[in-house]
Design goal:
4 helices, about 5% strand, about 110 residues
Length: about 110
């Protein structure tokens, strides 16, 4: 049902390669089918729908009372992706996006 809701509100059709990417990441028919696969990595070419389809669907499907969904991005992509993701999640699933900045500091003690 999540796929249909997403397609309806976003006025798009999920392409077969996007469905396959979701399947490869442990999402089957809009549900977490294999939680061991969550966190897996896949590589897709530019224009394959990573930002507009795959990431919003995974974020919406995996965010519930049992899971904290985190999307890790390089600093250069945070502004553009967070704006697009925020609009997509709000429009399709009425979900909210928060940005949390982390700074990693390595302290070496000799």
């Amino acid at each position: 049902i999540e796929y249909l809701v997403f397609e309806y509100f976003m006025d798009i059709l999920i392409r077969p390669n996007q469905k396959q990417a979701l399947d490869d990441l442990g999402i089957k028919d809009g549900k977490i089918a294999n939680s061991d696969k969550l966190g897996a990595l896949i590589e897709l070419i530019m224009g394959a729908g990573k930002t507009s389809v795959i990431v919003p669907l995974i974020a919406a499907i995996t965010s519930d009372t049992n899971w904290l969904t985190m999307i890790v991005l390089p600093e250069s992509l945070i502004r553009s992706m967070s704006e697009e993701l925020s609009l997509t999640l709000a429009k399709s699933f009425k979900k909210h996006l928060d940005i949390i900045d982390f700074i990693k500091i390595n302290i070496i003690i000799d």
